[in-house]
Structure prediction request, 337 residues.
Amino acid sequence: MDIRRSLALLTVALLVAVACQATPSTSGGAAGGKGPDGALVARSAIKIEIVTHGQAQDGFWGVVRNGVKAGGNDMGVAVNYSAPGAESDMPAMSALIDAAVAKKPSGLVVSIPNPDALSPAIKKAVDARIPVVSMNSGSDVFKGLGILAHVGQTEFEAGLGAGQRFKDAGVKNAVCFNQEVGNQALTDRCNGFFEGLGVAEGQGKVLTGKISDPTGMQATIAAAIQTDGTIDGVLTLGPSVAGPALAAVTASGKTIHLATFDLSAEVLTAIKDGKMDFAIDQQQFLQGYLPIVILTNYAETRNLPTGDGTGLIMTGPGFVTADNAADVIALAAKGLR
Prediction:
């Protein structure tokens, strides 16, 4: 473990310790949770807006929202989660950020899947002197936007680790499925994956589809496997794609290595049963939870964790395999993993 990773994990541990000392709220975070004596603001007055590109009904983002709600309850602050109707709708997400800024909240949490599209709205928040913490996507751009801290994983490195694992397993020709073209974080995952496999830059095969069309995604993967008989590996970038991919691989009757980013009950069961190689876990519950802790403490005391020295607080990547999948299944069923 390198020093950057060690510092990041220590920061997360300290933040969780701070959170555990809070008095839980029994009213959904609107009031309750006693802050430190002499704080700049009472916790009952703290209101935090969260705008992400993922809808809470999605398996992954539902866990993020659970983390947000738990953070609000534990800190005793009010939280409000918003997302556009479609993950690729950046104009709608920008409008939601503008609406959040107009409320003059104590803090703002944002994901940054498309920096070009979202930077103007985020800069408005920073210019309005609203403390902003980014999460999930945006680890490579948050500092330049004036954001205080970022909670998540570095996507290229996570993909790199996946590619190295596939290479070690003997995979020669793998594809990467991107369900949200235009999301830079997903592009970085595929690029890192192909580098880990040893594929020349620009030569990796990327399949695309819509997360709202699982039947179409399955058909795309099945067609690729049928057309190219040398495909021996598939990496999906989210659990909503992993299910269709698993169905396509199973129907093919071929021995094809399969892995995914992020967790779901279906993914964990498939790993436990030997039908998937592994899942890359970025601990999305913490991505929802920790920004609430950070912004609460910043509002109260101006304390701010530095993470690896830049404000990057790592929650991943970790790898769930057949050796540890059983331990996480019950937690996933409760929306905690």
User: Anything to note?
Assistant: Residues 52 and 83 are 5 Å apart (CA to CA). The domain at 155-281 is CATH 3.40.50.2300 (Rossmann fold). The two ends are 23 Å apart (CA to CA).
